[in-house]
Amino acid sequence: MIESNVSLSCAWCAGGGDGTRAHLDENHSEHSLSPSGHLVVAVCLGFIGTFGFLNNTLVLILFCRYKVLRSPMNCLLVSISVSDLLVCVLGTPFSFAASTQGRWLIGRAGCVWYGFINTFLGVVSLISLAVLSYERYCTMMGATQADSTNYRKVAIGIAFSWIYSMVWTVPPLFGWSCYGPEGPGTTCSVNWAARTANNVSYIICLFIFCLILPFVVIVYSYGRLLQAITQMSRINTAVSRKREQRVLFMVVTMVVCYLLCWLPYGVMALLATFGRPGLVTAAASIVPSLLAKSSTVINPIIYIFMNKQLLLQTIACDKTRDEDVEKLVLPAGGDTSHLYVIFSLQFLPARNHGNCELRRVEDLKCCTDSSIYSACVDMTGGG
Predict the structure, then answer these.
(1) Among the four residues 25, 124, 163, 353, which has the most C-beta atoms within 10 Å?
(2) Sorting pLDDT into bands at 50, 70 and 90, what band is 225?
(3) Which Pfam families does the UniProt record give (predicted)?
(4) Which residues are CB-neighbours of 240 under 8 A, at least 6 positions away?
(5) Contact, 184 vs 42, CB < 8 A?
(6) Is pTM, for the whole model, over 0.85?
């Protein structure tokens, strides 16, 4: 299968036109999935495309409908939803149609376009998740000011995600590696199989800078957040322990789903590049591809619908106010002898106009009259 993919991909990338199409048809029956296999893949792609489209469309509708959701940090979630939605609109329908017919349907140019747009949008999603995790880390640790009206920094983060992704996915269009048929020939992606120095160098760079690096940023950022929140365990309150458990669950879920969606695809690509010929079969190559595409369904569930704060914001809608997200802050004047943490739900109901005012305290003290809890906690134990 690998040797076949080498010949197919190289022919497509060389601009083989009709000869490439004939070569693909000639090898189709030998290297493709069975009709039932293509049907299973088509069903999976139909499910992923439909629910990915619905989930991300609902996210965008919520952000358009409720003004209170349009905070700078939430704009990163919108960026992720846009990239995932575009995958469902510009990519998945073509691989779905190809799977129903058992062959690629829109020619060489369509294959190159499909490979580029799916790789580009997939990397946008990965980099955006890393930027989101780092922004959350900086906000909570007090490295940046959580200003609910300042969109400049988040706009820079969003622009960085898209430009960075473009930088790493455009080169195959100009000769550094190439885009071509993948797996059973019903999808297209980077040419994982060619063993040339040109191709291998690109795959190594793509793997490091677009998969490993975002994962390291996510693990570091959420790991530090979790470390800060676990310090609350010394405060023997049900609220702090419940919150710690919820944050732990969210962090573990985010990391596990990231690995589940993208690690198999990365491993498959490396095996196709460096493994022995025939190691990755057509069936084995399509499974990681489906897992990667499933991120368009999973991302909205994890980052939006599992977010209790967002759901409360939607319910509270017009009777809300902007508050800082969970944030570790230093007292005014730079005095580091006392470190406090504000735990408050973003956009709390404002019927009492309760504010959590940070002030130097020696003991655990609740400093809000909001109907939903918020606490100022002395993290240094007083003194």
Answers:
(1) 124
(2) confident
(3) 7tm_1
(4) 232, 233, 343, 375, 377
(5) no
(6) no
The Cα 151–Cα 8 span in angstroms is 46
Contacts of the segment 45-48: beta carbons below 8 A, 24+ positions apart: 45/92, 45/95, 45/96, 45/99, 45/290, 45/293, 46/96, 48/88, 48/92, 48/290, 48/293, 48/294, 48/296, 48/297
Q: What is the largest CA-CA distance in the chain?
A: 80
Helix (H, G, I), strand (E, B) or coil at 102: coil
Superfamily assignment of 2-316 in CATH?
Rhodopsin 7-helix transmembrane proteins (1.20.1070.10)
Helix ranges, the chain (H): 2-13, 17-31, 35-65, 72-90, 92-101, 107-140, 152-169, 197-207, 213-230, 238-274, 282-293, 295-300, 308-316
Report yes or no: 161 and 131 within 8 Å, Cβ to Cβ: yes
Q: Please, which pLDDT band fits residue 106 given cuts at 50, 70 and 90? A: very high
Closest CA to 49 of 100, 107, 5: 100
Q: How confident is the model at residue 254 (pLDDT cuts 50, 70, 90)?
A: confident
pLDDT at residue 227, as a whole number: 80
Q: How many other C-beta atoms are found inside a 10 Å radius of the C-beta of residue 148? A: 17
* DSSP labels, 115-143: HHHHHHHHHHHHHHHHHHHHHHHHHHTTS
Token pair recorded at residue 249 = 């669950």
- pLDDT tens, residue by residue, 151-190: 888 899 999 999 999 999 999 999 999 999 988 889 999 9
27-83 pLDDT per residue, tens: 444 456 888 999 999 999 999 999 999 999 998 998 888 887 788 888 888 999 999
In one letter, which amino acid is 50?
T
User: Letter for the amino acid at 148?
Assistant: S
Q: Which residues of 2-27 are buried (b: 16+ CB within 10 A; e: fewer)?
A: bebbbebbbbbbeebeeebbebbeeb
